[in-house]
Give the backbone structure.
Amino acid sequence: MVRFAPRYGIISPCMARPVLGRHLRAVNDNAEGWSGSWAQQSDALDTALRLFAAHGFSAAARARDAAAIAEAGGDTTRSGFWLEVCNTLDRRMARDFKARRHS
């Protein structure tokens, strides 16, 4: 846990500024019933979060490998889905994979 403690007697600028109204509601991955935000409507995001929970920082590489396997098997729908998951986790890796695939 990170805790902010300003020096004694000092009012921190981050505490003195008024809160801007840009974050009116949190986007939780389990709040579909009340928020209806885009995050709950994306299967790729749900899969990306589960993959990241299972594999950590190598999750994007796993998604890229799954896209390559699906593409080798001729399943373009699954390949596109796994590429979207890879893009959610690591845009650069997905972009490089697309560039190599189309070259």
Summary: The chain has a mean pLDDT of 78. The two ends are 46 Å apart (CA to CA). Residues 59-72 form the longest helix (14 residues).
